[in-house]
Amino acid sequence: MSQTLVEVEVAYALPHKQLILTIQVPEGTSLYDAVVQSRMVEHFPDLDLSQASLGVFGKLEKSPKTRAVCAGERIEIYRPLLTDPKEARKARAAKAQEARAKS
């Protein structure tokens, strides 16, 4: 008896290089396992899947190792933020306030 395969996309992007791979995986495969099977790390050797967050169509998935893929989904591998958004806003506000004080 053959196992049903579903087609999904796996996406990862750096500022200078982006890649979307279309793969087929057995129905019931977890998001994490689909990413591993995509062999994305062969294209991005510095990618550490154990530390990466995963999502589907822009929505972060909290349990990528247990959540099964659905046909047609785009699994996205997210890079960590370089700067905390809250801290960046505070720094911009402080810089703007300083500029106003000098005027």
Automatic annotation (TrEMBL):
Which is one Pfam family of this protein? Ub-RnfH
InterPro entries given for it?
Mopterin_synth/thiamin_S_b, RnfH, RnfH_sf
User: What family name appears in the similarity comment?
Assistant: Belongs to the UPF0125 (RnfH) family.
Q: Which HAMAP family match?
A: UPF0125_RnfH (MF_00460)
- Which NCBIfam families is this protein grouped with? PRK01777.1 (NF002490)
PANTHER family assigned: UPF0125 PROTEIN RATB
Name-wise, this protein is UPF0125 protein C8N29_101214
